[in-house]
């Protein structure tokens, strides 16, 4: 599936093992796959999701990853776990209007370690005005959530206004991209 292909490409980009042994999402949701990282013992992570989703994921993730995973229930519009080296968002920003999406990115920028990154998987609207799946998803997000798909300059501005800068934008599958961003460096202008 395209969702698995996205995560395999992300895992490859991050230097993680991939292959036929990729694990389906522990919540049994059909649209998200987690590359098998059971044997990559130096990785530790935190899953932040709504409390009922976090509790549903806890047994399987704890069985697979033991003490290397912390499961947290919460609201990422209020805060995200502090001290991370990487914050992975997968098709999240398109659920929200610019203000809410910018706030989520700002929470990540504030919480990350020095040198930390936001890894964001999003659809990017291509230039022009022609029918395609991304525009259909844009309409769907607008109607269902009040969010939207964005063009690359719009995403760049959203990240910039949240205190982040694009480092790279890598195609994954179709119109899906991995955006890697880090905290913006501000330079002081002389008086």
Explained architecture:
The protein is α/β, with parallel strands linked by helices. 34% of the residues lie in helices and 25% in strands. The chain is built from five helices and nine strands. The protein has helices at 2-13, 51-65, 98-111, 133-145, 152-161; strands spanning 23-24, 33-34, 45-49, 69-73, 86-90, 117-125, 150-151, 164-173, 176-183. The strands form three sheets. Strands 5, 6, 7, 8 and 9 form a five-stranded mixed beta sheet that branches. It is globular and about 50 Å long. The termini are far apart. Mean pLDDT is 83; it is low at 22-33.
Q: What attributes does this structure have?
A:
191 residues, alpha/beta, two-stranded antiparallel ribbon, 5 helices, 9 strands, globular
């Amino acid at each position: 599936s395209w969702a698995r292909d996205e995560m395999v490409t992300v895992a490859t980009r991050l230097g993680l093992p991939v292959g036929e042994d990729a694990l389906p999402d522990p919540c049994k949701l059909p649209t998200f796959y987690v590359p098998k990282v059971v044997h990559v013992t130096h990785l530790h992570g935190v899953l932040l999701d709504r409390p009922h989703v976090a509790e549903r994921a806890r047994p399987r993730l704890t069985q697979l990853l033991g003490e290397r995973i912390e499961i947290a229930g919460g609201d990422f519009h209020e805060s995200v776990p502090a001290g991370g080296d990487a914050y992975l968002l997968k098709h999240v920003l398109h659920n929200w209007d610019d203000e809410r999406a910018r706030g989520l990115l700002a929470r990540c920028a504030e919480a990350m370690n020095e040198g930390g990154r936001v890894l964001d998987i999003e659809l990017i609207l291509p230039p022009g005005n022609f029918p395609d799946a991304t525009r259909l998803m844009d309409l769907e997000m607008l109607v269902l959530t009040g969010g939207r798909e964005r063009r690359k300059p719009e995403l760049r501005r959203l990240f910039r206004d949240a205190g982040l800068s694009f480092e790279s934008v890598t195609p994954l599958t179709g119109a899906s991209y991995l955006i890697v961003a880090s905290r913006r460096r501000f330079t002081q202008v002389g008086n």
